[in-house]
Amino acid sequence: MTDNADKQSQQQTDLSRRKILRTSGVLGFTGALSAVAPGIIRAQGIGEPLRIGFCGPYTGPASHTGHAIKQGIVMALEDARKTGEIPVSIDGNLHEVEVVWVDSQSSPTAAIKASSTAINRQGVKLMVGGWHSSVALSLMDTEADLNTIHIGHLGASQYIANKINLNPKRYRGWFKGWPSPPKLAGLYGKPLRYFMKQRLWQPTNNTAGILVENSAYGHSWGEALSNSLKEEGFDPLPYEVIDMEETDFTQLLKQFKRRKVSLVAITSAGDVAVSNFVRQFRELNIQALLLGHGIRWLDNWYQMTGEASDYVVSMDSAMPIALWQQWWVRRYQAKYNQEPSIQAAGLHYDYTRMAIRALNMAGTLDSDSLIATLHQMSHKGVWNLYRFSTGPGPHALSANEVMTGRFMKGFYHPMVQLINGEAKIIWPLKYAEQRFIQPPWLSDKNKTLGSGIIG
């Protein structure tokens, strides 16, 4: 094609986009809905809708998280339309985006069935998002067999990274959207030791109890946290395993109490499990600091835990540090009349925007071209800078894993402490909003028993 022909084609595409944007502006809310349900309104002269599958636990034990995921995706698609990124340009034609909600139900078996149906019967061309590692480990094979690219699944387990490393060619289309636990859970030890050295936290011993959900993610996180704590002089007990649907933790907590642990850590993606554990921890008056990884994945975490969550520490989510992040939170609150779960709604917002931009940049659904585009992208989202690694390294365990880094230099979580329903950054000190506060029940205990700070 000649340069003049290229210029003319681009002018026609730009004119079509401006026409569609003017139409959307006149239609207002109804026009914005076409990003989600294009059958309602379809602009003239564009191709068939492009069906994208958005994976999440929309029903089942993590359905509350699934609801937040869905809200983040809808908001992202509406914003993408406002900026002219929808309709997307594929092979020189404009296409509306049609959403197919792929419900994992927090079950690998259900997820495989839903994904296969979406791709084989509903014509899904690309998958985005997701939550559980066990689901990710199953979907990886199903979607590899169907030659379907998946962007930003939030399954964190290092077993996913190991699987990619063992066969990078087979899983070249799987883009892991959450760093492996050694890159995040492995960061807990250093700030905890700092708080002890500064005598902000004065535990009576170095013993830690750890509780994880019975999943690939849970086991990975338990291993990573244990290693991190050992490196900083703690003595963690072998981690305990629970079902995601578990609600009664009395016996486990009594066991920790008998062992006189000074630190208790839990992670679970179950909507009810983690909140019940937090309440029962306080009801049984466990004389320890509580590390609650995953509590803020629920947008209503304070409603579910109340003052029992006071003094919990966590590094499970991004925080609105920058002005644009605070603005996003305000927009979300105005739209949905609730606080956002940044990890569920916010990260799916970012990965949805990234997927739409990758499609426009590649300009094709050809797997090789789209994969190459994703490897070359450096996407500044609301919550992180997203770059996918081309191989194992200091910031990722495998190829196609999102890379960690400092704030807005990679995937990043600060440590926060929860008090009165608010999360305040306590680490790193550069972004700290307050100092770490030792729970008052530990202060009373130390007056009697003395301090056991790691020396």
Outline the structure in words.
The protein has 455 residues and is an alpha/beta fold. The chain contains 16 helices and 17 strands. A five-stranded parallel β-sheet has the order 4-1-5-6-7, sandwiched between helices. Strands 8, 9, 10, 11 and 12 form a five-stranded parallel β-sheet that branches. A three-stranded antiparallel β-sheet has the order 13-16-17, with no helix packed on it. Helix 3 (63-82) packs across helix 14 and helix 14 packs across helix 15 (367-376). It is globular. Mean pLDDT is 88; it is low at 1-45 and 447-455.
List its salient traits:
alpha/beta; globular; 16 helices; 455 residues; single chain; five-stranded parallel beta sheet; disordered C terminus; disordered N terminus
Globular, elongated, flat, extended or rod-shaped: what is the shape?
Answer: globular
Distance between the ends = 72 Å
The chain-level mean pLDDT equals 88
Q: Mind telling me the C-alpha Rg?
A: 23 Å
Q: Order of strands across the widest beta sheet? A: 4-1-5-6-7
Helix content: 40-55%
Number of strands: 17
Secondary-structure class? alpha/beta
Helical region count?
16
Quote the beta fraction. 15-25%
